[in-house]
Amino acid sequence: MRKNKLAEGLELSELCLGTMLWGTKTSEGEAHAQIERSLERGVNCIDTAEMYPVNPISADTVGRSEEILGTWLGANRARRGEVVVATKVTGPNGGFIREGRGFDGDIVRQAVEDSLRRLQTDYIDIYQLHWPVRGSYMFRQNWQYDPSGQDREANLAHMRDVLEAVSALRDAGKIRHFGLSNESAWGVMNWLNVAREIGAPQVVSLQNEYSLLCRLADTDLAELCANEGVRILSYSPLATGLLSGKYQGGAIPQGSRRTINQDLGGRVSARVFDAVEAYLAIARRHGLDPVQMALAWQRTRPFVGTVIFGASDMGQLERVLGAGEVELSGEVLEEIDGAHKAHPMPY
């Protein structure tokens, strides 16, 4: 599997193993089997978070995904260098972590220590801020997003405080690279500016939702990435399974995410199934697996550093890993562009 260079000493495989179901839907043994198979197929990065598992989230299970990854790392210490481990500190939340508070410099320092303990490792390769304390337009909040009440100077002071902690953690060898998640172009640019001002680690990655159905990154963020050397680590590349086609016709397969969350976090809309059908039709015309087509398309995007996927079982894992060998023709890419123009922003 090909790799993308994000920074000196940091290369990510084009596909990345996600862990947000480990500890609820996916057992520890199944998760370890996923790690082994993914490494065999050339995947070298695993993404997690202190908040995981989610869907559903519970105060009783937060941190469990890190713990499950940690039991594998602890049992395979000689292989630590084979794996790029990325994790995240949680922003303001509904009371699941730290009574719902977000993060500041002191919280980041403690959160890193807690993650290192759960992960059974001495360092984190990419440490990310899960979403901004000031708010975000991600998670389908773009339709009502209004940043006009933000305090610019307070936001910059917050960034400086967090980056001073990140710098100290880097100097102590506890984190190696710094990334963001669910951020805007303004946010990324100012995290970069403050880091340059105080000599802190600069942003190397931005983990945002990106798929054939969610293309918010295609304009301002794409330009920022091109000019500032940031790469997007895309999550929900299959739009929580919509792009597989399994929910077409109102279907809710047993054990699927829609049995827990029927609107898939706001992704189910009056227009989404027509958009999905447009992409399914392209795959049928060209003899492609729609899952592999959706993932392979991401690999053609110049700002994508890796594509984070989740798998409920080994069968799903094998299907996803096959996308690493799929090359899309110019004709397919042109048809995908046409479908996007016909069905923009379906949720």
Question: How would you characterize the overall build of this protein?
Answer:
There is one protein chain. This protein is of the alpha/beta class and 347 residues long. The chain has one domain (3-266, 294-327): NADP-dependent oxidoreductase domain (TIM Barrel, Alpha-Beta Barrel). It is 37% helix and 14% strand. It has ten helices and ten strands. It has helices at 28-40, 64-75, 105-119, 152-171, 185-198, 220-228, 272-285, 290-299, 314-321, 330-342, and strands at residues 3-7, 10-13, 15-18, 45-47, 84-89, 124-129, 175-181, 203-207, 231-234, 304-309. It has an eight-stranded parallel β-barrel, surrounded by five helices. The longest helix is centred in the middle third of the chain and has 20 residues, at 152-171. It is globular. The mean pLDDT is 97.
Named at the architecture level, the CATH assignment is Alpha-Beta Barrel
Query: What fold name stands as the CATH topology?
Result: TIM Barrel
Strand content: 5-15%
Widest sheet, order of strands: 3-4-5-6-7-8-9-10
